[in-house]
């Protein structure tokens, strides 16, 4: 196996120049860097991770913390984060919080404080004060997506604006009997996006002079097709308050609502219009009009922000970047026919 001396000899430079070129920490001309990288790749030279750490003080490893790995939002963000970090030459250590309170406590009090990472990325993780304090002890850059964390640079959509935009679209289609599927339960482990989207829904109704009815709001316990199905069944089965449109606070809930409508003999969008949020991979297949929050775009920006902070700790980055949302109109909504 080739060593650093072999690369230096072949490239016609010193071993120190090879080290600088492959570490990326010190300045070196683009031409020399490209030459060294080409020779190293051709000879099959792989720098020693331990040697790199001794020289630079870095591990080239990023800690990524997620509540779950088997749900769409988190897996989609992880896919992009992993791809972009590997492209930038970093390894990823995944910390999954879904295995219970003891496991979660161990991650924040033992695993992360060992400082085996250059930075920490949090994907939609709502933390307690104690967890934030533990994370601060790592003394490394912290970036987050999905909600604010003290001491972290955050990327987040305006969930109130998302709920308002979705409802305004239905109002523009002539609907006034608009129901919503969301949740009123607050879980301390998750950001309160349900109620933020509900606030936008109610604001849009108020601006249009429409009174929100309690019977038009159905609460679910999680983003799941089965939950949307059950909630829509209750809404559409009400002989006195059945809506002509539903705002589902996720696309998975919207899919469930569409299936419930079909089972009740209703057609989409002639009998019922439905709007979701996310631009989930299922939304295009089912023709769901949705609010696109571009999870992959957010995750890519998160990695970019983290790399900027690692390259220059003094780099000016806003504490919170509001990611824009957009309405994507598909076949699940149509103008109300009187």
What is the secondary structure topology, with strand pairs?
Elements lengths: L3 H8 L3 H9 L6 H14 L5 H8 L4 E6 L5 H16 L3 E6 L4 H11 L7 E5 L5 H8 L5 E4 L7 E5 L1 H14 L5 E5 L10 H15 L9 E3 L5 H12 L8 E4 L2 H13 L9 E6 L2 H6 L2 E4 L2 H17 L8 E4 L2 E3 L10
Parallel strand pairs: 1-2, 1-3, 3-4, 4-5, 5-11, 6-7, 6-8, 8-9, 9-10
Antiparallel strand pairs: 10-12
Helix pairs in contact: 1-2, 1-3, 2-3, 5-13, 8-9, 10-11
Structure description:
With 338 residues, the protein is of the alpha/beta class. It has 13 helices and twelve strands. It has helices at 4-11, 15-23, 30-43, 49-56, 72-87, 101-111, 129-136, 159-172, 193-207, 225-236, 251-263, 281-286, 295-311; strands at 61-66, 91-96, 119-123, 142-145, 153-157, 178-182, 217-219, 245-248, 273-278, 289-292, 320-323, 326-328. It is elongated and about 85 Å long.
């Amino acid at each position: 196996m080739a060593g650093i001396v072999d690369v230096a000899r072949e490239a016609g430079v010193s071993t120190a120049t090879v080290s600088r070129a492959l570490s990326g920490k010190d300045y070196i001309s683009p031409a020399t860097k490209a030459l060294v990288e080409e020779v190293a790749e051709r000879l099959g030279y792989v720098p020693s991770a331990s040697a790199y750490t001794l020289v630079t003080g870095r591990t080239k490893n990023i800690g990524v913390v997620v509540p779950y790995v088997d749900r769409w939002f988190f897996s989609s963000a992880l896919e992009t984060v992993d791809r972009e970090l590997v492209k930038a030459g970093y390894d990823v250590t995944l910390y999954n919080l879904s295995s219970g309170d003891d496991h979660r406590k161990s991650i924040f009090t033992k695993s992360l404080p060992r400082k085996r990472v250059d930075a920490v990325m949090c994907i939609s993780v709502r933390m307690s004060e104690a967890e934030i304090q533990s994370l601060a002890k790592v003394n490394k850059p912290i970036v987050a997506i999905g909600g604010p964390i003290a001491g972290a640079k955050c990327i987040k959509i305006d969930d109130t604006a998302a709920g308002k935009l979705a409802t305004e679209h239905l109002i523009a289609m002539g609907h006034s009997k608009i129901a919503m599927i969301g949740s009123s339960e607050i879980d301390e482990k998750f950001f309160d996006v349900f109620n933020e989207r509900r606030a936008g829904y109610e604001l849009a109704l108020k601006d249009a002079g429409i009174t929100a009815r309690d019977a038009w709001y159905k609460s679910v316990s999680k983003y799941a097709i089965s939950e949307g199905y059950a909630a829509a069944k209750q809404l559409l089965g009400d002989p006195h308050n059945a809506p002509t449109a539903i705002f589902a606070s996720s696309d998975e809930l919207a899919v469930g609502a569409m299936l419930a409508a079909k089972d009740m003999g209703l057609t989409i969008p002639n009998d019922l219009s439905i709007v979701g949020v996310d631009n989930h991979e299922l939304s295009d297949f089912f023709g769901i009009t949705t609010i696109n929050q571009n999870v992959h775009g957010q995750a890519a920006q998160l990695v970019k922000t983290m790399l900027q902070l690692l390259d220059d700790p003094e780099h000016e980055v806003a504490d919170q970047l509001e990611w824009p949302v957009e309405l994507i109109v598909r076949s699940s909504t149509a103008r109300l026919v009187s």
